[in-house]
Specification:
Blueprint: H1 2-35, H2 40-55, H3 57-61, H4 65-87, H5 97-107, H6 112-132, H7 136-221, H8 228-252, H9 261-273, E1 279-284, H10 292-313, E2 317-325, E3 328-335, H11 352-367, E4 370-375, E5 381-388
Parallel strand pairs: 1-2
Antiparallel strand pairs: 2-3, 3-5, 4-5
Helix pairs in contact: 1-2, 1-7, 2-4, 4-5, 5-6, 5-7, 6-7, 7-8, 9-10, 10-11
Length: about 400
């Protein structure tokens, strides 16, 4: 809404500038006609030429960006030269300096814009003095006009700069929103796949495994009784179905974990984090006997933590360690970066590092685990996640 209001302000200011120029030029034309011969024709020619050159500003707007600055300077130079010629014929042309002030300030970079305003003011004072003699009003009037134009012009530039910053911020916000939405969709799909993998593992796979073991036990109890061949065939069918089910579970796991958590982290350390100037050491045992949803969560937690390290820690080395024990897993990520004060995160809710840690905390909460963040200024950071009550897949 604010951006839209600023756009309306700029539009009104530009329309007002054009209307002012046309009105003042019309006044000059009327004054030229009243002059009579021999100045009427030279004055009309210069007035018409000034209007045509002013209209040529439409062409300047559509010049490619790399040549627009030069085109603007040439356009202003032509406009100023014609105005000076008209000024020394008709004193009322001095009023046209006011819209020219805004053009100088808008199109010329600092400090050339204000310098051009001062030069145009001096030319107006001299021309008015030559026409009717130098007076206090002939000097103070152009100076006041120049002062007002400088104040308004500088205010306009600040307003335009603020609008550009808001536009950039809005663009970045929309891009971030799109990335967040895409990340949430991806996370939702991954969580759903992990849920399906857990459900299949805990129901179908376990049932098929139990059926296979029961059939195998029945087959060994009396291998020569009638129907033993059917028991063997049923056991082999259950074994084949169990193998298919386990393959489905593996396929539902995130693609990055196709070769295991250790391989996924090593691949990220070598291909992604190294390009950001961070050397990452991975200390994860293989094979890893952890449920797939826990491995997926640990992978995402490590990615989020290292993303924060790359963006904010200015670290050169980091370590990812994963220890497993009796129904427990402990993921530890440490870095040698600048560190921070964890107690200040609550006062910086909008900061990206705070957002990253909140996302990690939410993921740990979904696992039913515990999150511990240890850091101090200049002492690096340690993020530790502990998940208890785990069984093997």
């Amino acid at each position: 809404m604010v951006h839209r209001d600023l756009t309306r302000v700029f539009l009104v200011l530009r329309i007002g500038l054009h209307v002012l120029f046309v009105a003042l030029l019309a006044l000059v034309v009327v004054r030229v006609v009243l002059l009579g011969a021999p100045l009427v024709w030279p004055g009309l020619v210069l007035a018409v030429l000034l209007g045509l050159v002013y209209l040529a500003g439409i062409w300047v707007i559509h010049v490619p960006a790399e040549r627009r600055r030069l085109a603007s300077v040439l356009w202003l130079a032509a406009l100023s030269a014609i105005w000076i010629g008209l000024l020394f014929l008709v004193p009322e042309a001095a009023y046209l300096v006011f819209p020219l002030f805004f053009l100088y300030l808008h199109l010329l970079p600092m400090p050339y814009g204000p310098v051009a305003v001062l030069v145009a003011t001096a030319v107006s004072i001299v021309a008015l003095g030559l026409h009717g003699g130098f007076s206090v009003g002939g000097v103070v009037g152009p100076l006041l006009g120049a002062g007002v134009a400088l104040l308004i012009g500088l205010g306009y530039q600040e307003l335009a700069r603020d609008a550009a910053e808001r536009e950039a911020l809005l663009t970045e916000l929309l891009a971030t929103q799109d990335r967040l939405a895409a990340s949430e969709r991806e996370q939702g799909m991954l969580e759903e796949r992990a849920r399906l993998a857990r459900e299949i593992h805990d129901t179908v796979a376990q049932s098929l495994s139990s059926i296979q073991m029961l059939l195998h036990a029945a087959e060994r109890a009396d291998a020569d009784r009638p129907g033993a061949e059917h028991l063997r065939l049923a056991r082999e069918t259950a074994a084949a179905s169990l193998a298919d089910t386990r393959r489905f579970i593996r396929e539902l796991a995130p693609p990055a974990l196709d070769e295991g958590l250790h391989s996924a982290l090593v691949r990220l350390a070598e291909r992604e984090w190294t390009t950001d100037g961070l050397r990452v050491q991975v200390d994860v045992a293989e094979p890893l006997e952890l449920p797939m949803h826990v491995q997926t969560a640990f992978l995402r937690i490590a990615q989020s933590t290292l993303a924060n390290v790359v963006k904010h820690a200015s670290a050169t080395h980091a370590t990812i360690a994963l220890e497993t024990g009796a129904n427990e897993a402990r993921l530890t990520v440490t870095d040698d970066g600048v560190g921070f004060d964890p107690t200040t995160l609550s006062t910086r809710a909008g900061a990206s590092d705070s957002f990253g840690l909140r996302a990690i905390a939410e993921r740990v909460e979904q696992l039913g685990g515990e999150l511990e963040v240890t850091s101090a200024a200049g002492a690096g950071t340690t993020v530790r996640v502990v998940v208890k009550g785990l069984g093997t897949e």
